[in-house]
Amino acid sequence: MENPFLRSGLALAGARAWQEVEGNSTEDAASGIFTAQDARGLDLRGTRLVVLSACETGLGDTPCGQGVQGLASACLAAGARCVIMSLWKVPDTDTQALMKAFYGGLRCGKSIACALQAAQRELRQPASYSRWGAFVILGWPFDSPLADL
């Protein structure tokens, strides 16, 4: 595959179930895979935050001199202001705890960057770095809190 945005994506559980029930399962039907190319085709202008909490959503191809091309960069190219992504596999329970603390911070009026930092600090003890450190921000997370919308 020449296009690096076709090598990064998410498998959507149950995405093809409606096709099989309706008898519409064809080669041309949706695959249930949401690729970075699909994300690039979205209009995300005005979207302040995209959260990709699945494992390794920050990974992608790195063509010479072009940086990482994957889901996160595709969301930014589509107009999102910032993306939270993971750089390695994290157990579901740890991801859930981090996201709960993160969204709690947003609800309390913290900026995206401060909410993620506070969530990571909250989970820091006694969890090892590998359980909370995978989540990073790409883009511009320093705007006023999301509650100001």
Average pLDDT level? 77
Alpha carbon gap, first and last residue: 40 Å
Cα-atom radius of gyration: 17 Å
What is the number of helices?
A: 6
Spatial order of strands in the largest sheet: 3-6-7
Low-confidence stretches: none
**Beta-strand level of the residues, as a percent range?**
5-15%
| Overall geometry | globular
Q: Percent of residues in helical segments? A: 25-40%
* Quantity of strands, as a count: 7
Largest sheet composition: 3 strands, mixed
Taken together, the total number of domains comes to 1
Task: Find the structural class using helix and strand composition.
Answer: alpha+beta
Element string (H = helix, E = strand): EHEHEEEHEHHHE
